[in-house]
Amino acid sequence: MKKALALVLALALALSLVACGGAPASTADSGDGSAAASGTAAGGLYPGTPDAEGITVNNASEPPDMNPLTTTDSTSMNVLRHIYQGMMYLDAEDNAVPGVAESYEVSEDGMTYTFKLKEGLTWSNGEPVTSADFVFGLRTFFTPETAGDYQSTWAALIQGATEAFKGKAPVEEIGIEAPDEYTVVYHLNNPAPYFLSVLAFPSFMPINEKGWNDCGGLDGYGTEADKMVTNGAYNITEWQHQDHITLTKNDSYWNAAEEAAIKTIKFVMIDDSNTALNGFMTGELDMIGLSGQQKKDLEAEGAAKLAQFPDGGVWYFEYNVTQPGLSNAKVRQALTMGIDIPSFMENIVMNDSKAANAFTPDCVKGADGVTGSFNAAAGDLIDHSSDFEAAKALLAEGLEEEGMTVDDVEISILTDTGDTAAKNCAFFQEQWKTNLGLTNVHVDQQEFQSRLNKMSNHDFSVVYAGWSCDYNDPNSYLDLWITGGGNNHTGWSNAEYDKYIADAALEADPAKREELLLAAEELLCEEQPIGPIYYRYRDYAVSDKLEGVVRSPFQDMCFLFATIV
After folding, report:
1. Could you say which DSSP state residue 259 is in?
2. What are phi and psi of 375, to 5 degrees?
3. pTM
């Protein structure tokens, strides 16, 4: 994720997730979370938009980055998954299934993947989709000038990629080759049980070289509806910035007879929960996120079809450890402990979201990629006991070690615009004042892209941030915090942590790999460059006319398998 996460019934997502990690957290989506599965409740009196072939849904904000090679947020990915398709894509049950690929083989050592492509597929500019598009896309992704936040993440997988994106070796030497027009071979550094799922991620999308150049390359590609060349189930036919994006079914899509039954999808950008809710109730919107209070009100009314899903989003404080006071782990621990989480869940979130007992959420499988719950194996690593006297004492101890007192502490909480973000941070502000005696705490609300820019520039003291998974493995969360990682905005660096992550990447034995990642989780929660708050469940309302929407930790919004009834 990095992908954006928050639901407040008609809100338009006001708090954003980054990571699949970085979309605004809308009030319409439970105020801070991400998504998980489709589902409906009894009842429903809202027929939705009168268009019998199209739908209008709230995406809450302007997608900040529609270039697949540089995007990190779930708001953009909600659109991108409909207009691009990679070697693999996710089905309605989140399984990685062949997309552009016709078939594939994996070597016995798990380090070489060979794909045969479907023939006859075309780009929106009429060019054929070939193996050259995958080679060009991945080489461009790992080019130093691309400077994407995910380069360090995916480089660990692909042979030669680390040297390439750091400018130490030619990008032509990375582990991808095209023996012929319809064959692609990937060479990995080590076995990765989740690699097929990774190939559904935007960073690995094919890119048509002619289209890339015609649209302005790195600076221009993905900036307008006519500045991208796509190969997915839909074409982007309209983009009115800060207002809406319209997608139209691509009749040339290889599986058009079975998928993409909805002819048009209009994503609107409403970040106010009341406005969004009003739009839903008057039939202008077919799906919106709900705040906890909105969910309760609609349940009492019994007039809307409601659904909920755990979106894989973890919401947390991201501490800038280079700032005075925040450089001390005890201070950071105290700030995390200083929030009354039960009160926050009951009075602010108001749904089935769960207090975070670690960083990696409970919807993620074990490190073998197949069975178990990684979170259950990790256990309770974060103190949310509401022992505020202990938190206050820990804060004083940490500040004393830094030669500071509570009067010296000045904190600005960086967050998104919108009413949900404001409400959440006002709660944290009051909690730190009441429970820890911190009186100099401010809230800095920024538009989503501005918030991301300030994070990347380390221009903050604390960010209230959210992250959702890119694939179903704990590494999707834990490798965020390696030294110099593109999504590590904290300034935290720990050689022992880096070694755990690096060793896990090379470990072929699933049990040993899990041990290494569990050790990394424990160290992260001890040092707390981040302070986990809760795992988000998202509530939403959907029109009676719409069925089959997929919302999951791995697909925030997917309409490929939806129908209008």
Report:
1. S
2. -60, -40
3. 0.78
